[in-house]
TrEMBL record:
It comes from the Bacteria. Residues 5-121 form the N-terminal domain. InterPro entries: Antirestriction_ArdC, ArdC_N, MPTase-PolyVal. Residues 150-275 form the Polyvalent protein metallopeptidase domain. This is Antirestriction protein ArdC.
Amino acid sequence: MTSIKDTYQRITDTIVEQLEVGTKPWIRPWRGNARRNSIIPRRATGETYRGINVIMLWVAGQMFGYEENTWMTYRQAQDFGGQVRKGEKGTLVVKYGTFTPKDHDDDEDRAVPYLKGYTVFNIEQIENMPDRFFSPVEELQGNPVPHIETVESFVQNTGASVSYGGTKACYRPSIDDILMPDRTRFDSEVHLYSTLLHEVGHWSGAKHRLDRDLAGRFGSEGYAVEELVAELAASFLCADLGVAHDPRDNTAAYLANWLAVLKNDKRAIITAAAKAQAVAEYLTALQPGAAQGTA
């Protein structure tokens, strides 16, 4: 079994490699034949992946051009009557767990966390899979609609106070509101809504909500981590709500900050992804009729 240290490092190396060439690996733009209902990676059971696994599978999907988003192990493929094609390479995902050392079996507080890496394959890498695993192609609209009601309702249901005007997008902790540039200043609804969901991600971190540290200044490690959490949360939410995720402005500056943090701490991307997952789940739980999901 790959050691926990090696697994953390392999994940971080993958993300850093993408950032160094100027690519945000969690950006999942629509393709011409995008399967809109399968943007969040799913297991063979239909359950969605979570946290860092979402990002790792998005990276693989972009690198190899997969449009399907169902992934499974080699053995699972065989169980469904499929066969991974010869020469195909799998993608690393992880499973979290704990174990108790033998000399502390009676002490639950001595449970030690572990991170186990294993390999999965996209169904496009597998032959003879049942048709039910493949999504129907949905043609994208030629003329994008600037007002997306699903996102507008989602944000309204969170209770966040949002006002439009000026030239800056930010969450203001002192008065607990979100300030957005006037809608006419955005190039597209994609840019507008990915920015809005990013700021709602920051809003979730207030002390009386998820209680994250929002006090860091630009250039500091704390600031970079919080920006990364909000960026990843926005990518998760955009995918869930069916909106392409557009990179934020000041890309070069943000990439430099994130690279510095990731190279200094190989656990940072995994921690940020877990916090971003918590943000997405917190905001989703605020929606009317929201039900508790399963991991």
